[in-house]
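Why do we bother with holo predictions? Because pocket geometry can differ from the apo form. Keep that in mind while you read this record for 2-phosphoglycolic acid.
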Amino acid sequence: MTKERKLIIAGNWKMNKTVAEALDLVNGLKRELATVKEVDVAVCPPFTALESVSKAILDSNLRLGAQNMSENNYGAFTGEICAAMLKEFCVRYVILGHSERRQYQKESDALIAKKALAAHAASLKPIVCVGETLAEREAGQTNQVLETQVRGSLAGLSKEQMVETVVAYEPVWAIGTGKTATTQQAQDAHAFIRGVLAQVFDDATAKKVRIQYGGSVKPGNARELMGQPDVDGALVGGASLAVRDFADIIKNSI
Ligand code: PGA
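The structure, written out:
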C-alpha cells in the first residue's frame, strides 16, 4: 500500500517488561522485521529498559522511544527524567500526554505543550496523544475535545517542529478495552485533526504530519485502519508486548 506519508508504528509497552523480558521481545522483533523498510517502527520500553534495548537495536531498523519526559531540563524534580537523559540512550521519539498520564497524573494540555517544546529543543520527536472519552463521544463533543487538545498540546510549536511531531489519536474508550474505533470513526477523527492543524499551522504543514491511530490495534484490524487516507500509523499498547502480534501488525500494514 503506498501512502502519502510514511507509516509510523510504535509499541507503547507501558509499565511492562523487565530488562530480560524487554531483550527477548526486541530480539524477536529484530528477527521478524529485519527486512521491513516501508514503515518506521519504534519501541517504547519503560525507562529502566532503555539502555539495554538501545544497545540491542543498534544494528537494526528499530527505533527507540520513551513513554514520557519532564518539561524541565534538570534540577530538583524527584522521580523525573529529562530529555538529555533520554538522548544518552539514542532515544528518538517520546510519547507525551498519553491518556493514562492525562488521567492519573493530571497532565494538562499546557504541560504537554511545554514537554513537546522541550523535546524538540533536544531534537526528540514527540508523539502527542489526544482523544475523547466515551462520555464525551456520546455527548457529541468529540470534535470539540479534539480541537481543544490539539490546539493546547501543540501550542507554541513552529511549523518546522510540527512536521517533526507525530499526533496519536487514541479514543480513550478504545484503549485496552478490545473496542476499536470503526475505520470510519478513525478516519473522520484523523481528517478533523488534520483540519485543525491546517488552521493552526497551514495546509502544507498539516499534510506532512503523521497521525497515528491507537486503541486496541491488532493484527486483524491493522490493514483496514492503515488503509484510511488520514491514518498514518499506529500506537499499539497490549499487542506490542508479543513478538508475533506486533510483527504481524506491521506486516499487515504494508
Ligand atoms: P492498546 O493501547 O493497544 O492496549 O489499546 C494503546 C495505547 O494506550 O497506546
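Residues 36 and 47 are 26 Å apart (CA to CA).
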